[in-house]
Write a structure and sequence with these properties.
The complex is a heterodimer of chains A (104) and B (359).
Chain A: E1 5-9, E2 17-23, E3 26-32, E4 38-42, E5 56-58, E6 61-63, E7 70-72, E8 77-80, E9 89-90, E10 92-95, E11 98-101
Chain B: H1 11-18, H2 33-40, H3 45-68, H4 75-98, H5 105-118, H6 123-135, H7 154-159, H8 164-180, H9 195-219, H10 223-227, H11 231-234, H12 237-247, H13 257-260, H14 268-274, H15 280-285, H16 294-301, H17 312-328, H18 347-354
Helix pairs in contact in B: 3-4, 4-5, 4-12, 8-9
The chains are: A mainly beta (104), B mainly alpha (359).
Chain lengths: 104, 359
């Protein structure tokens, strides 16, 4: 199991929003849900490799800024065309005011 | 430059991939995240109100048209119904294909299916063609929705104000998909998992049109076709008029929407029919922003965009001579001036595509 990585402060992400996090040559998206839960997925849309952090979070859905494809960021499920391939997901949590993610 | 090859399977398609024009990174005006988040917010209320108004008007106009049929007094009501069916449905198809009209997904999907049928578009195919249009806007050989190819074919452009060539192509493609499967060109942008849906939608549409034709034959009247099918022809003019302005006469093979798209101020009636797609540079740069927030987006980024045309008339006055000139010089296009507050075009990046065409 890989180690927890310190990604950002909890204050860096508004409720119901997303930010980009680059680590180890890969890019991720970290989400803060409407209920202040924390989630992490691959950072690029599985359709055309656009950064999801520029998209819109609605409840538990992230919408890609380029073609409006949608994913459930809790489990990475592709929900709306043109996305067909699910996102990878990674554990995320908040501790002592920091957001930690467990990425490879 | 050699003659453009608009086939999605042709030489220009291969060239676009080779030189990195396909699925490239495009220019975006900087907008603070907080402001963009506010602009992207979805709502059902405005789209419900607009949709009730649209369908209410359609029912009223078609009812009066049928009641007064076959008198010539019915003509104005058919013309009004036709514009809502053959033009307003184009913008509804478009906005719902992005999923931005309503916040509630099923509402987007229902209106999308109805609007696709009215516009004679396969709802499964066109969702993907429009995604490609946004990925590779006016990249020759990649964009399947280039309305004005070079050199322009004027009898087709004018014929399409009455839907003639578009409807002919759409009917042929519908029958092809219904009986032979997905067309080879469509296979380049529709994933294989969606092919059965393409065929199913084509078959459902074919059955509806056959039933309408059968009813017309049984009644000995074209009245059923005046309600279903023909409005795509006699009501097409408005969506063609506004649609040509989107990119007509501007650059192709560039990766900056300020160079290949046009924003035009329009009257309130046209904006209702067109659902604010007159803010076309803004829409292409930020397709997440719903139609009702485009005027606000325009206000937020206009400092970085070429000045909009001030009316449909002014837009045509700019575009039409450029199209005429493209008859002789394929490479000619309008390069619109940026205001001093804008970030300049990346001449180094676009020189190969732009050449000296604007001379």
């Amino acid at each position: 199991m890989s180690e927890w990585v310190d990604a950002c402060s909890v204050d860096d992400i508004e409720t119901e929003d997303v930010i980009r996090f680059d680590h180890g040559g890969k890019t991720y998206a970290i989400y803060r849900s409407p209920d202040d839960e924390w989630f992490c997925t691959d950072g690029l849309c599985s359709h055309e490799q656009v950064h999801l952090a520029d998209g819109l979070v609605m409840d538990y859905v992230i919408e890609c800024p380029k073609h409006n494809g949608q994913f459930d960021y809790r489990n990475g499920e592709a929900m709306r065309a043109p996305v067909c391939v699910n996102l990878g997901t990674y554990p995320a949590k908040a501790e002592d005011g920091r957001v930690l993610v467990q990425v490879a | 430059m050699p003659k453009r090859d608009y086939s999605l399977l042709g030489a220009d398609a291969r060239r676009a991939v080779e030189i990195g024009l396909a699925t490239a990174e495009w220019y975006h005006t900087d907008v603070p995240r907080k402001e963009m988040k506010a602009l992207m917010q979805r709502s059902d209320a405005q789209a419900i109100r607009d949709t009730e108004l649209l369908f209410g008007a359609m029912i009223l106009f078609v009812g009066l048209g049928i009641a007064l049929w076959p008198s010539w007094w019915s003509a104005p009501f058919w013309l009004a119904y036709g514009v809502l069916y053959g033009s307003a449905m184009d913008s509804r198809w478009h906005e719902c294909s992005h999923g931005t009209a309503f916040r509630t997904p099923w509402m987007n999907n229902v209106l999308y299916e109805i609007a696709s049928f009215c516009m004679m578009r396969n709802s499964a195919t066109w969702r993907w063609s429009h995604a490609r249009h946004h990925t590779d806007t006016y990249i020759v050989g990649r964009d399947p929705e280039i309305a004005v190819m070079r050199p322009p074919v004027f009898f087709k452009l004018i014929g399409n104000f009455f839907g003639i060539f578009d409807a002919w192509t759409a009917m042929n493609r519908m029958l092809y998909s219904a009986f032979l499967g997905v067309h080879p060109e469509e296979k380049t942008f529709v994933p294989e998992s969606e092919w059965p849906k393409v065929v199913r939608v084509a078959r459902i549409s074919t059955v509806i049109y056959l039933a309408t034709i059968a009813l017309a034959l049984a009644m000995g009247s074209i009245l059923p076709l005046m309600v279903i099918g023909l409005p795509r022809l006699y009501g097409a003019w408005h969506h063609v008029m506004t649609g040509l302005l989107q990119h007509g006469g501007l650059a192709d093979n560039v990766t900056d929407h300020r160079l290949n798209s046009r924003t035009v101020y329009m009257n309130p009636v046209s904006r209702f029919i067109y659902w604010n797609m007159n803010y076309h540079v803004e829409h292409h740069m930020f397709p997440m922003v719903p139609y009702h927030a485009l005027p606000k987006l325009h206000a937020a980024i206009r400092h970085d965009l070429p000045a909009p045309n001030r009316s449909i008339r002014e837009g045509f006055a700019e575009m039409w001579p450029a199209l005429v000139r493209q008859l002789k010089y394929d490479d000619y296009f309008i390069k619109r001036e940026l205001p001093p507050t804008a970030k300049p075009y990346r001449e180094d990046f676009h020189t190969a595509a732009l050449g000296t065409a604007a001379e």
